[in-house]
Amino acid sequence: MSASDSAAAIDALPSALLAELRAIRHDLHRHPELGFEEVRTQAKVERWLRERGFAPRACAGTGLVADLRPDLIGRAPTIALRADLDCLPMEESTDLPYRSIHQGRAHKCGHDGHTTILMGVADRLAGRRAELAGNVRLLFQPAEEGVRGGGAKVMIAEGALDNVDEVYGLHNWPDYPAGEIRVRAGATMAQVHAFALTITGIGGHGSQPQLCRDPIVAGAHLVSALQTLTSRELGHAGGAVVSVTAFQAGTTNNVIPAEARLQGTIRSFDPAIGERVVRRMRAIVAGVAATFEVAIDLDLHTGYPVLVNHPRCAAAVARVAGALIGDARVSDAGLPMAGAEDFAYFAQQVPGAYFFLGAGRPGESTPCCHHPDFDFDDALIPLGVAMFLGLVDDRLAALAAS
Ligand code: NI
Question: Is the pTM of the predicted complex or chain greater than 0.85?
């Protein structure tokens, strides 16, 4: 494909459709909904799909699954494409004309843009039903974010990946330059463990430490000792992040409190390394408790697993991206990254790949995802649509021939 052909593929969206997609994106942005509450968003997407000949079914409550060619399921390959629907529980700080109308809810990760991109894909595919070599399944997933998250897992349990050969997903990412696409084979995003440590000692008068068992001193040692999980337990290649992000204890200057509470997160890119860090964390906690004669309760929550891209699928993303924007703008720089994504569950079930659309505008520091000033860049819509359409053509042809 020549440079002008590839520009044409990205520019192939009719301008009326592009204007409509922008308006949809702004409407979704104005009306953000939290995980498993995406009722309005679901209704809007469902209407759009029905108008284009799809027969979507609800999945995971507020999600949707829609097949382009249900008649071909089981007889021809099926490629799944996924978008996330939910917003974040945070405030919008922008003065955009389409700023969130809800307090404490905002699209600060760009899922409004991802949903819009997949709606654009649905429109383009609907006009090509007869000519494709297989089925395309659109997955509109609720609840990707945070403690409410895990919508992917629920969708899988409800059969969203049944008969699916490969699955693809994307995310905008302002830390990578606009016009670039980043993808990598293997570990791409991190496994998360969240931990909370409650240290119970014996409180008392600040002048009488000999009568107390001070949870603050034990906690301070614990914070230092936990740093050795990465500096002394892992070699030069590393492979984990351990951060203590909260330390709460005490109320005044002359009382030793009875309790201190720490919270933090572990990120790792290999299950064996994650297990090693957790095992050694338990040992350090037990050791500090014995040393300072305090009780320490470790509450460990295991979050999303490592997101692992299948080499064949990552290669397909790189190939399609290279044809669209040139190989020089496609790389695996900056990957893996220590964020987490429940697309990981999809990629555990069937071969898949998750890739990033660079969104950093040149010459400015573009607010990153989850920043209160963040806004999805509408300029990414044509490239996002072109990438998914390119993957459909590439993969259906390859799988049908194999
Ligand atoms: Ni996100």
Answer: yes
